[in-house]
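Q: What changes when zinc ion is included in the input?
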Amino acid sequence: MDFISQFAVSLDVILGEEAGMIPFHNSHTHRVPEDDNEIAIVNSYPGKSCFIENAYLSCGIHPWHVNDTWKEQFENLPFEAKKNSVLAIGECGLDKLFVGNFRQQIEAFRAQVTLSETLQKPMIIHCVKAFDELLAIHKEISPSQKWLIHGFRGKPEQAKQLMAKGLLLSFGHRYNVETLLYVASTYRCLYLETDDSSLSIRQIYHQVACHLSSGNLG
Ligand SMILES: [Zn+2]
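A: The predicted holo structure follows.
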């Protein structure tokens, strides 16, 4: 099993969240876990990652930080990302709503995909209004590593398109409920995350459990 698959939570576990002492897998967060039962991938930036007890890290250059200095930021990344505590490359990706040089975002993203393939570590991806470009790169590179789209808010049709290409989707506090139910009924498991929300991973599990139990899971 690859590293990222350990963060896929079965529906039985999510629906049993009230039972209490289960580990809460958090596939993407910007906060150090405060809950002893939380197993998290904490986001870090090259040059700023550190060891966090009981947590894994991801390390990458966020598209909002991509500018003329991205190559300098990238210099530290291979060294940091090699560490055992770093489970994934990211968050990185493409964001068309961010006012910046989209061409540079693509260059920085491609460099991080190459690193992910070299180190054999999966990607945690931030993608806003750039799924066509993302899929084009995915098709061209045909990566061996898993790509996890974090904070997915798209509609079921878009989820279906991404899942057909083997991409994984992770859900935070805001999502399309229909999409959540579609992904849950297809895979019988979900990736859940807090990202930068003020909600805890327990609260996210609880919110998702409520939607799962009131929805049609097929
Ligand atoms: Zn994030």
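Observations recorded in class: The chain has a mean pLDDT of 93.
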